[in-house]
Specification:
The chain is mainly alpha-helical. Helices cover 82% and strands 0% of the residues. 7% of the residues are buried.
Length: 122
């Protein structure tokens, strides 16, 4: 059962958005639906807030279907892909691997030295 937090201190708009999310995600069970109807009956403005939240959600969903938005999204994904490739190209260069190997060997040397001193002192 999807339980909403209808405690004081939350605005009616926040509660409307919570109900809208449950509705859109298909998680508005029978108890929550009863709670929603009761909330609508408390104040006529509640139903308008819920409807406004739904309309806003649908508008945002439909924005992503517009060709201009889809083109911008594709360009952003391509730019991200190019940046990721460049980052990995730099990391694959031998100098980076040599540097990492040197750091690892230095760490092992330090651990071995400290362990030797502790064994000698103990």
């Amino acid at each position: 059962m999807a339980q909403l937090k209808l405690q004081e201190g939350r605005s009616a708009a926040e509660i409307a958005v919570d109900f809208m999310i449950l509705h859109v995600e298909g998680r508005l069970d029978e108890a929550s639906e009863t709670e929603l109807i009761r909330w609508f009956e408390e104040d006529p403005a509640h139903q308008r807030l819920f409807q406004n939240a739904l309309v806003s959600w649908w508008d945002l969903e439909n924005q992503g279907l517009q060709p201009e938005i889809a083109e911008l999204r594709a360009e952003a994904l391509q730019a991200y892909g190019r940046a990721s490739q460049q980052r990995w190209k730099r990391f694959r260069q031998p100098i980076h691997w040599l540097w990492l190997a040197g750091v690892a060997l230095l760490g092992l040397f330090i651990v071995a030295t400290v362990a030797g001193f502790l064994r000698f002192a103990g």
